[in-house]
Amino acid sequence: PVRCIPLTATHCRLRLAWSREHALWTPHQWSCVTFSDESRFSLQSDSRRTFIWRAPGTRYHQENTIERHRYGGAGWLVWGGIILGSRTDLHVQSVTMTGHIYRDVILEQHVHLFRGAMGAEFLFMDDNARPHRANIVDECLQSEDIARMDWPAYSPDLNPIEHV
């Protein structure tokens, strides 16, 4: 079966409103938007259904067990952004994204450069992940005069970088 995010009636209404608001945007307007996203890559198997053939009485033998760490084990988080005709460098980190890291690394080292190159028309898209909405992030965006695109919750399918 396909896994999907369950959407409430409110989610659907907000997604439709966002789509209608942006349906008539010109190519120039879209060319000023930097779309960003991050993905986490686990070094552990994420399969919760692994089938094996084993002899009776060998259930707990080492070759028939898979260690599962409570928090998914080690992994890497990769962040990137795209804008028409260009892209950011990829940022790779082995620690959890926090509001401080997002501000100090992502905004200051990546987004700030694109804002400087694009000028006042620049628009930054990030999703509603908790680190992206931290007060220190909002303060940084405001102090750097970086406009943020409103983004409907649970809408990764609307983000073009989601498929890159």
UniProtKB/TrEMBL annotation:
The lineage of its organism: Eukaryota, Metazoa, Ecdysozoa, Arthropoda, Chelicerata. It holds the Pfam family DDE_3. One of its GO terms (molecular function) is nucleic acid binding. This is Transposable element Tcb2 transposase. Residues 33-164 form the Tc1-like transposase DDE domain. It comes from the Eukaryota.
